[in-house]
Each structure stands twice: as structure tokens, then as C-alpha cells.
Automatic annotation (TrEMBL):
Motif (Histidine triad motif): 99-103
Coiled coil stretches, renumbered: none
Residues spanning the signal sequence: none
CDD domains, per database record: PKCI_related
Name listed for the protein in its UniProt record: Histidine triad nucleotide-binding protein
Domain HIT: from-to ranges: 6-114
Pfam families reported for this sequence: HIT
Amino acid sequence: MTEPSIFTRILNGEIPAEILGETDRVFALRDIAPQAPVHLLVVPKSAEYRDVAELAAGDPALLAEMIAFAKELAATHTDDGDFRLVFNTGANAGQTVFHVHAHVLAGGLTEKSVG
Ligand code: 5GP
């Protein structure tokens, strides 16, 4: 059996984290190493999908739910509601946790970088 992901362990209360909200199928937490003034993560409760490409193929409604939840979070955690979504997909693209998650980056991002 593979080890539970860090997000599953957080969801199970084994590792502390700042949980910001949840629905039946997704939850959100603050990233431990923020790369923007607001850096949140939206994560499906199920670890079934490794990355966003697998998720899009297997459960597009869940991907849509993640994006809707990201929008709600940005509305709550920023003045303007604007946000950038990042899905690192594969180790060579910077993915370190293979339990699909969206990075929600916000809070006055003015540069045009996509990274
Ligand atoms: P990835 O590199 O897979 O795209 O994103 C994983 C993210 O999870 C990273 O931004 C990293 O900072 C975050 N992360 C890793 N371990 C923890 C943790 O224990 N708690 C929280 N809140 N975030 C974590």
C-alpha cells in the first residue's frame, strides 16, 4: 500500500494545518510555504487522482467544484476576488505531492509570470 499523502494526513487530523473550509468533496488550507501574499490550496478529500490531468479525465465535475471553491476563497481572502490557479503536474513541473491540488495565489499579483 502507498503511504497516505500529506493532505490525507492533514484531513485526518494527524498533521496540523490551517483549514479554511470544506465541502462534501473538497477542502482548503493555507500553504505552509507561501509563494504569494495569499497562497491557499484546494484539495479533493479523496486522493484518487494524482494530478489535474487525471482528475479532468476521471471526474470533471470535481475539478469544476475545486475551481468554484477557489473563487469563493479568493472572494473571502482578498480585497478584489482575483486569483491565479496553478496545478503543478509532474515532478519536473514542480509537483511534490501526488494528490491533486490547486494552488490559489492572490493578493496583488502584478507581474505577468505564470510561475
Ligand atoms: P506541489 O509542489 O505538489 O505543487 O505543492 C505542494 C504544496 O504543499 C507546496 O506548496 C507545499 O508548501 C505545501 N505543503 C507541503 N507540506 C505541507 C504541510 O504540511 N502543510 C501545508 N499547509 N502545506 C504543505
